[in-house]
Specification:
Number of domains: 3
Strand content: 35-45%
Length: 418
């Protein structure tokens, strides 16, 4: 790419208006806590949203490998993630602030670690309300290690949704609009839906770009209709890049070569700027990752090893006033020094390295300026990109002091409607 073209890209990228929101409640762990997996038992997707009484699990590794004590606490929040006025005994049956006692030491790995697992609900902790929850993990000094959101719902409303091309020609090729309707359960009705019904739309299980608190445009009988265009519009983005390290000793798709030092060193095939290129469909996990290994008995919890994964992004010149980050669920879509890239002028590439457990990973590169975060300035944005959307419906019943999660809707842009 010529220098003039690259400069044009930088200017264009800086003009992109991001709807990025900071996910301040979810705290990322310290460098020695890795591979945080939080999901239901029936799904590989790491976004725990369960029916009241359904089970889900938290997994994580401590690279110190010394079987430290960790404890969990649970908090309840309103639909907009502001603190609730409920007391713990109003949303929990039993106790929290309990020790996570299910842990195992890694087996036959170069990187020693202790693997922890927490199952919820359990004999000592059960949930009484639907809505928004936060799981916090503390160490034995009562210092917060990390936190993750989870949702509990009941089916008391149905959602019919679809993904549409935007009517604004400026964004016709790059954005997607989510339109939907909400119906209460048979025999029920919504009281004061303009103020008591709250809706959140989440793209690809990522809280940092969620749209909140849309109001119904109009009613058809007892059905609430949300036929917005701009108000429910998302950047389409691009399909995620990926690599596979299930077998850590051999090269695979997008892995160029491997070295063995103290730990394995996995070098990925260099990537390039995708902005401006035509859209090409690639099956992906929408940014997620799955822990897998082919070693031993294939128990990824304790037999999957860690390797230093080397990323590189081709760039003929340093991007002025922009920082580049490797982005994915592996660090909960947050930007920090661990996933920041640095420019190597000798090779004309941005380089980054991360310590990751064996498995299948999605990732992409995003840019950050002093003013904003530009999630698609490097990868490009297309209306045809396959994205998953989750519509969360909250309702405050008459007399309640909390927001119940009464329904969820799911839709995909795989068959986008023109």
């Amino acid at each position: 790419m010529k220098k003039s073209c690259w400069v044009n890209f930088v200017v264009l990228g800086c003009c992109v208006q991001s709807i990025w929101g900071q996910n301040t409640l979810e705290i990322n762990p310290s460098h020695f806590i890795k591979s945080v997996v939080f999901k239901t038992q029936s799904s590989e997707i790491q976004f725990p949203i369960v029916n009241l009484g359904e089970s889900f699990q938290l997994h994580f590794d401590d690279l110190n490998g010394d079987e430290r004590n960790y404890y969990y606490k649970i908090k309840y929040y309103n639909h907009d993630w502001t603190p609730s006025n409920l007391f713990p005994n109003e949303y929990l049956k039993g106790f929290d602030n309990l020790r996570i006692d299910n842990h195992q030491t890694s087996f036959n790995t170069l990187q020693p670690y202790t693997h922890y697992q927490l199952d919820l609900p359990n004999d000592q902790t059960e949930f009484l309300k639907t809505g928004n929850y936060l799981l916090e993990v503390f160490d034995e000094t009562d210092e917060l290690v990390f936190s993750r959101k989870f949702l509990i719902y009941e089916n008391r409303a149905s959602v019919n949704a679809g993904v549409f091309r935007t009517r604004d020609l400026e964004f016709y090729q790059t954005h997607q609009s989510v339109q939907f309707s909400i119906s209460p359960a048979q025999g029920e009705f919504f009281r004061d839906p303009q103020n008591q019904v709250h809706v959140t739309i989440v793209q690809n299980q990522q809280w940092n770009t969620a749209l909140n608190d849309l109001k119904p445009q109009y009613y058809i009988g007892n059905h609430l209709e949300y036929r917005y265009d701009a108000e429910s519009r998302f950047e389409g983005g691009n399909e995620y890049l990926f690599f596979d390290t299930k077998d850590i000793q051999i090269t695979s798709t997008n892995v160029s070569h491997i070295e063995l030092n103290r730990l394995y060193e996995t070098y990925l095939t260099p990537n390039f700027l995708r902005r401006g290129y035509p859209y090409s469909f690639i099956q992906d996990l929408n940014g997620d990752f799955i822990i897998r290994t082919l070693q031993g008995s294939e128990n990824g919890d304790i037999e999957a090893d860690y390797s230093w994964v080397h990323f590189s992004l081709s760039a003929p010149i340093l991007l002025k006033d922009q920082e580049i980050y490797i982005y994915g669920k592996f660090n909960n879509y947050q930007l920090n020094e661990e996933n920041k890239m640095y420019y190597n002028p000798a090779l004309e590439v941005y380089e980054g390295v991360m310590l990751l457990k064996q498995g299948i990973y999605n990732y992409k590169y995003i840019a950050k300026t002093p003013q904003s975060i530009l999630p698609n300035a490097i990868s490009g944005s297309h209306a045809l990109t396959e994205n998953h959307y989750l519509i969360l419906v909250y309702y405050r019943f008459f007399g309640d002091q909390h927001d119940s999660l009464i329904g969820i809707g799911e839709t995909s842009s795989f068959e986008i409607i023109d």
